[in-house]
Write a structure and sequence with these properties.
It is a single chain. About 45% of the residues lie in helices and about 15% in strands. It is of the alpha/beta class and about 250 residues long. The chain has one domain: TIM Barrel, CATH 3.20.20.70. It has an eight-stranded parallel beta barrel with strand order 1-2-3-4-5-6-7-8, surrounded by eight helices. Strand 3, helix 3 and strand 4 form a beta-alpha-beta unit. It binds 1,3-dihydroxyacetonephosphate. The site of 1,3-dihydroxyacetonephosphate has 14 residues, from strand 8. Pathway: Carbohydrate degradation; glycolysis; D-glyceraldehyde 3-phosphate from glycerone phosphate: step 1/1; Carbohydrate metabolism; erythritol degradation; Carbohydrate biosynthesis; gluconeogenesis.
């Protein structure tokens, strides 16, 4: 079972209603690129508006709370996201881990909340530059995922994606080498197969994230075990994001 490349735009804390025109352009063009699964994770305030615009692309969120409801001022539950039209949620992004102290255990609890609400998951992992320089990138990332990922998931291939985003590559214009990406994605694949079995774990898409641009997308998407990309800055305009989507379609065709 080989799923289509999955190209996801993470708008982070960017976007007001004036950006709905970008979402609309992405949706219209994505229609012509059926070889790729395209999705956007706008800020919470735009989930429902983008959902109303989008006929072809998936809409998701960038985080959720681990409980269904309650006294948590300012938080949003997975059930609320689903109600607003979200189909997936990004969990454990390094910016959440760094800025909000999210632990692997909390990310795991959020995975369970999202699954209960019927959402798909994109679970993020990635090492800091010091960790890579010390030669510990792989064990660090695998330990993150061992705790963050759900313990079982019957439909892992459809329900789950993992995003490997080295922290030093996010928003810096630097990307990991394709050799390093292939090695890390291979290690993540082994963990997914161990946990979810050959058929399901073998088909979970492992996305690369960190300074993906139209210019480097093809090389990255052609790398072994890369099933898509999680894109920050370059997802903020339809033009650059669609350049990455087109690279995904080229790779799928070739
Ligand atoms: O963090 C990222 C996506 O989640 C990557 O961001 P950039 O594409 O801006 O480097």
């Amino acid at each position: 079972m080989a799923l289509r490349p999955y190209i996801v735009g993470n708008w982070k804390m960017n976007g007001t209603r004036s950006m709905l025109s970008e979402a609309r352009s992405i949706d219209r063009s994505a229609q012509r690129l059926m070889k790729v699964e395209v999705a956007l994770a706008p800020p919470y305030t735009l989930i429902h508006p983008v959902h109303r615009e989008a006929e072809q692309i998936g809409v998701g969120a960038q985080d959720c709370h681990h409980e269904v409801e309650g006294a948590h001022t300012g938080d949003i539950s997975a059930t609320m996201l689903a109600d607003a039209g979200a189909k997936f949620v990004i969990l454990g992004h390094s910016e959440r881990r760094q800025n909000h102290g999210e632990t692997d255990e909390l990310v795991n609890a959020k995975c369970h909340a999202a699954i209960s609400a019927g959402l798909k998951l994109i679970v993020c992992c990635g090492e800091a530059e010091e960790t890579r320089n010390a030669g510990n990138a792989e064990p660090f990332v695998i330990a993150q995922l061992r705790t963050s990922l759900p313990e079982t998931l019957d439909d892992a291939a459809e329900r789950l994606a993992v995003a490997y985003e080295p922290i030093w590559a996010i928003g810096t214009g630097r990307t990991a080498t394709t050799d390093d990406i292939a090695a890390m994605h291979g290690a993540i694949r082994a963990l997914l197969v161990e946990r979810f079995g050959e058929e399901q774990g073998g088909a979970v898409r492992i996305l690369y994230g960190g300074s993906v641009k139209p210019e480097n997308a093809r090389e990255i998407l052609e790398t072994a075990d890369v099933g898509g990309a999680l894109v920050g800055g370059a997802s903020l305009t339809a033009e650059s994001f669609l350049g990455i989507v087109a690279a995904g379609a080229d790779v799928q065709e070739s």
